[in-house]
Amino acid sequence: MVKPPHEAMHRIFQHDPGLFSRVSRFLGVDIPRPVKATPLPTDLTETSPVERRVDTVLRFETAEQGDFLLAIEAQGGKNPDKPASWAYYTSYLWTKYRLPTALLVVCQDHATAQWAQRAVSSGPPQLPTLTLRPVVAGPHNMPVITDPEEARADLVLTSLAAITHAAEPAVNAILKALSTALRDVPEDIADPIVEFTAQGLGKHPAKHLWRNLVAVDLSFYKSYLVEEIREEARAEARAEALVKSRAEDVLLILEQRGLDISDDVRSRVTDCGDPDLLRRWLTRAVTAPKAEEIFE
Predict the structure, then answer these.
(1) Residue 138 DSSP SS3
(2) Which residue, among 161, 200, 160, has the nearest Cα to 3 in the 3D structure?
(3) pTM
(4) Less CB within 10 Å around the terminal CB: N or C of the chain?
């Protein structure tokens, strides 16, 4: 199943195709700003039953270098089968459209980025034949944007910076700068930025900070995207309150019954995050002869 971070890492380039020219300077290449960018079909399936589908394909028209294609892949981890697939994507697009084809891989961790940027050849060492050299955007080269004014100057790049640094400590400062920069931005511009950022953070802890920032800093926004994020934050807060309340009830009943509560029992109860399990312990706490037996 395709996960939200995967979608955000490549669809953000569909939202703002010019983003690649701005990102390229962090990748060690100089790609001119396109005069025009056209999304192309991503289905690379041939008549054979094997399906090949790239994440995003864009056709760029530039005044300096002419036209070229950019295939964008979001990569969540190392996959030994991917280089062969990427080689297929680029060679197929080159053959179909007769245009130079580049590959951008977007990652969220250093290990995957280091693996993805290796040059891989299809032939033996003495006959490399076709060599794949993707450019990689990840936490190792994407900017850490912490100044709200800098974030306001390029909201999409700042969103990508937050997505690629989702697992890094720097992501908190990036998100704070982004939320501040969005305060005076029209909703139709801010909405996709909020959505891409929320999707790109996935299950990383930074998602909680982003939801809180959206709920507070962007409280004047009424769009369905912002309201959805606020509701998720409220639901999580309610769930956390329920867990805390049930843990306190378990310990209170044991204390009222005069049972000896060891530090291990107290820690196990307070550290539990499963409300259903806490409910079972609460039921057993009423009749268990010893505190430790609520876990049996």
Answers:
(1) coil
(2) 200
(3) 0.68
(4) N
| Tokens matching residue 209 | 């900070």
Report pLDDT digits (tens) over 94-136: 999 999 999 999 999 999 999 999 999 887 777 788 899 999 9
Which residue is associated with the tokens 């920069």? 181
Contact 38, 58 (CB under 8 A): yes
Residue 281, both tokens: 């312990």
- Strand (E) or helix (H) holding 163: helix 155-164
The tokens for 164 are 């690629």
* pLDDT tens-place string over residues 221-259: 555 556 666 677 677 778 888 888 888 888 888 888 888
In the DSSP assignment, the letter for residue 165 is: T
54: number of Cβ within 10 Å: 22
Residue 284 · residue 278 · CB < 8 Å: no
Residues 6+ apart with CB under 8 A from 230: 211, 214, 215
Alpha helices in 257-274 (DSSP H): 263-271
Which pair of structure tokens corresponds to residue 244?
A: 């805390």
Which tokens belong to 54?
A: 């790239």
Taking the C-alpha atoms of residue 20 and residue 27, their distance in angstroms, rounded to an integer, is 10
- Cα 43–Cα 137–Cα 205 angle in degrees, nearest 5: 100
- For the purposes of burial, counting CB atoms within 10 Å of the CB of 216, is it exposed (0-12), middle (13-18) or buried (19 or more)? exposed
